Amino acid sequence: MQETSSETSGGQSAPLSLWVRLEHRFTQGVQAITALLLLGIVLVITYQVLARYLPGVRIPRWTEEISLIMMVWLSMLGSGLAVRKGEHLAMDVVVRLFPKPLQKVLATFVALLVVAFGVYLVWFGGELVSRTMGQTFSATKLPIGLMYLGLPLGGFLIALYSSINMMNIWRLKAPQSITDDADVSSTVAASRWTLRLSLLAIAVILIGGSVALFGIDTLSSPVGVLLGSFALLLVIGVPIAMALGLASLATVLSFPLFDARALPPLIVAQRMANGINSTPLLAIPFFILAGQIMAEGGIAQRFVDFARVLVGPLRGGLAMVNIVASMLFGGASGSSVADVSANGSILIPMMDRKGYDTDFSVGITVASSTQGLIIPPSHNAVIYSLAAGGVSIGALFLGGYIPGIMIGLALMVASYILATRRGYPSERRPPLGESTRIIIGAIPSLAVGFIIVGGIAFGFFTATEAAAIGAVTAFLVATLIYRELTLAKLWRATLQSVRTISIVILLIASASAFAWLMAYLRIPTALADGVLSVTSNPYVILLIINVLLLLLGAIMDMSPLILILTPVLLPIVSAPPVNMSPVHFGIVLLMNLGLGLTTPPVGTALFVGCAIGKIRIEDASKAMVFLWPVMVVVLLLVTYVPWFVTVLPNLLSRFQ
Amino acid sequence: MKHLTRIVGLALLLSLLSGVFAQDIVLRAADNQPEDYPTTQGLFFMADYLNQRSGGRIQMEVFPGGQLGDERSVIEQVQLGVIDITRTSTSPVGEFYAPIGVFSLPYIFRNEAHFWKVLQGPIGRELLDGLADSDLVGLAYYDSGSRNFYTTEVPIRSVADLEGLRIRTQQSQIVLDMMEALGAEPVPMAFAEVYSSLQTGVIDGAENNFPSYGPSGVRHYEVAPFFTLDGHARVPEVVLISSIVWDGLSTEDQTLIREAAQASVAVQAALWDALSDASRTAVVEAGSEIIMVDTQEFQDAMGPLYEQYGAAYGDLLERILAVE
Asked: What local confidence, expressed as pLDDT, does residue A143 receive?
């Protein structure tokens, strides 16, 4: 439904050809299937929770297996849809520096590589299916191959839509990705030289660092092929998920060049499939869906009103409201981008009217949104738990409260100082009757977050079940209590969720293959030895790691970095001399990478904030310059004082 | 760790030099347990043994901690020849070679002596040989101790005590059925969430071995002080090598590798016993009660389950039970 407008504009002024209409119908069919699959997972897992607490009903054994099959299909088909929309996370900051004609050629090449990735999935995903048709799930006795069938099907869609995109590059006047966000590209153009220099500096540090840590000998082996081809693919703009998969494949094929025994190309597909054949992963779709429903269903507005009652009368009241609302919304949705778009679209115009400078209103929206990544529930915490090999999600959630609130408080202090200096107003608290109504109205929204975290932390249900209940509760609150979730909004939330889920799950799949190769080539061990040969001072090691994370976080998105870096860095920090607990490191990692979302050149939260406030990134940076140091100070505090993270989980119980 | 890497590095250098004279062999071995765990130490012993006896010609690199995947997917990789050697539980091997799954049946071993007698006798031999049909070569069995129930409030002294208790189990059909045969209610859940679930009373108990229960493991003894020695599961570990790799080795090298694996069995078993005993002593000191039970009564409750599952293993179940 929402697609119609973009379709007609894509077809230019000419009447829609048969092919375009055919593609449109086909896409609608795929969308309907993925939406049904998502609905199916929600229903099945909700039934599983109910069965656990209904007297006389046996806990069903088939629910998780069926849900897993549906999730793999959903995410693989959805990956095709995300290719169609060009939504897979990619690093296009370097590509934008090239002249336009070269960009077109590169975009074509990238699309070809994505087609190759799809064809690989069709071919070897198919082989994997035929090899696993004989193995069965333990409860349902369904063949495991049935689940993996999603891989070749998804591969087909990825190849198909990428081919269509490739033809569009030459049919339309300019590449899709550049016309999409003209704002950003013009901003980039203005600061080309700064950007070039900063990218060059980051590249030099990363290349120099890897040569220093691994040594030239190690790099002139499959290790170099893996890291080098990955970096190259990223720089030319291949989406990260595809770059991880293709780099892994290239490395596997390169083994005979280095006189090593050849590896079968099937191994990449096997590792990808294995990475997503995991029940804890089922929590991710629900967290994403819940966040989308909250953003569409009027829940954000409740939090803003609630925060106005709480902190409005302070100096710079709306800035305080912004921070507290993010604390609450992040506590419910766990996504900083959803937070920026939901809170920002309410608060940035409000702040403009009250005379706040736009750089500040955008800056504080973006900075405060990072709380949502750390204050539970947070699907990034689930991704970390998986990447770290099963760290307790309950402990991670509880551990995030204090650091998240610390960021909030620190930002409030900074805002207060700025507000006093720039003379921003405070807000009158609404009269008692209205205040009471607002508080009562916000209770159902607040309950969503507490149901999820409380349910997990106290062991009443698993992370997956809690997330499912959260999504269902958010849906009920938005439809029955607030009555703001229309069918059209629900459909939009569902489709957007399907694509976001697919992007994350495909990343997890490819990152599993990549992480496996890193382990196979002993990269984590080599890196750990390299770091320890430089210094054995735990404070210095943690500082190096934080700087590395800040640099990488500035140029890459959060979830791929969690997936790639956790298996490499966790062994370093959890061993002597650092001896960090995996929960503590997880929170530091999330905080640090969250900061990266607010920095150029690649900062999703910053981009969304600037788009809403209609200002350029450099302008927003004027306010950010005050806010970044504040966040870095909190980050360092949390890094070096584990108490902030561990006190709550320890209080409740002795988690691992 | 650093030390070890240096040794491996030195060994690699030496092997490079000696490589002029003979073809070097580098074997990659995977274990899902951490570096200091008995099974992983068993593989490290094998590596040292091979290195010494072959004069550095055969190298074995050990990847601990599940770096290369979970047990099931590592077996797949061994079949593909991507990984050469692995130590895994026989339980996932049952999905590739069904008969070896017989060891996963609950209460089939009366005690540790019975366990070893079966494994090192003709039945154990037969099942290792049978793996050849699945592109795997079985080298040796390792000890895995026994899994037992532990509970928060209700001590289990007989089968009747299990009635209605909510016990956390692994997501495995046979374990779920065993729980139901004993009258308990199985609750599959992620291992990391078990501690808090025991504490908040969402579940009444769980089941595992001493090292996992004790201070070296996940410390469930702090919240579930009643440990019942029913030994419902003694699923052996097995050391496997890929057929693809095996068939490319000379007969002498094959013999040497078998020898190394056999020699590592005693080392692993001794380490396991030490770990298990230390854990047992520690939890008793901390106040846990170790409860002895009549295991025969528990085995008797398995009648319907043995009928349901036993048929798939031909006469294997009867033969194992019959070993004196």
From this structure: 92
**A184-193 mean pLDDT:** 52
Q: What is the end-to-end Cα distance of chain B in Å, rounded?
A: 45
At B289, phi and psi to the nearest 5? -100, 125
Instruction: Write the pLDDT tens digit of every residue in A548-587.
Output: 888 888 877 788 889 888 988 998 898 888 889 999 999 9
- The partner residues of B87 in beta bridges, in order of sequence, read B239
Q: Is A267–B197 a contact, with Cβ atoms under 8 angstroms apart?
A: no
* Amino acid found at A500: T
Mean pLDDT value across residues A4-32: 71
Phi, psi of B230 (to 5 degrees): -95, -15
State residue A615's pLDDT score: 86
Angstrom distance (rounded) from CA A287 to CA A160: 29
pLDDT at A189: 45
Q: Write out the two tokens for A85.
A: 């929309």
Q: Burial, A220: exposed, middle or buried (Cβ in 10 Å; 0-12, 13-18, 19+)?
A: exposed
With tokens 């025969």, the residue in question is B296
Residues 6+ apart with CB under 8 A from A72: A147, A148, A150, A151, A276, A277, A505
Mean pLDDT across B248-254: 94
Rounded to two decimals, the pTM is: 0.84
Query: Which residue out of B79, B169, B196, B198 would a mutagenesis test of the A interface target, given it has the greatest number of A Cβ atoms within 10 Å?
Result: B196
Query: What's the rounded mean pLDDT across residues B17-39?
Result: 78
Region of poorest pLDDT, from A41-55, A447-461, A552-566: A447-461
Of residues B2, B173, B200, nearest to A532 (C-beta): B2
The distance of Cα B265 from the centroid of its chain, to the nearest Å, equals 12
Token couple for B231: 């030994």
β-partners of residue B148 are: B208
Nearest of A149, A139, A134 to residue A64 by alpha carbon: A139
Interstrand relation of B147-151 and B226-233 (parallel, antiparallel or unpaired): antiparallel
Q: What percent of chain B has pLDDT over 70?
A: 93
Q: In whole angstroms, give the CA distance from residue B212 to residue B282.
A: 12
The pLDDT value recorded for residue A644 is 92
Q: pLDDT tens across A283-293, in order?
A: 888 888 888 88
- How much is the CA Rg of chain A, to the nearest whole Å? 24
Residue B58 CB neighbours (<10 A): 22
| Closest-CA distance of chain B to residue A409, Å | 30
The answer on pLDDT for B8 being more than 50 is yes
A572: closest chain B residue by CA: B1
Q: Which residue has the tokens 């790099």?
A: A219
Strands B166-169 and B237-242: unpaired
At which residue do the structure tokens 């140091």 appear?
A: A629
Q: Return the pLDDT at A180.
A: 41
**Distances A53 to A72, A143, B284 between C-alpha atoms, Å:** 28, 30, 35
Full DSSP string of B151-166: ESSS---SGGGGTT-E
CA distance A268 to A249: 6
Alpha helices in A236-298 (DSSP H): 240-254, 266-276, 283-296
Q: Are A384 and A590 in contact (CB under 8 A)?
A: yes
Average pLDDT, chain A: 85
Chain B residues within 8 angstroms (CB to CB) of chain A: 1-2, 5, 28, 61, 63, 65-70, 73, 76-77, 80-82, 95, 171-173, 176, 185-193, 195-200, 202-203, 218-219, 222-223
Closest CA to A129 of A275, A266, A291, A303: A266
**Cα–Cα distances in angstroms (integers) from residue A142 to residues A34, A72, A135, A456, B72, in the given order:** 21, 15, 8, 30, 17
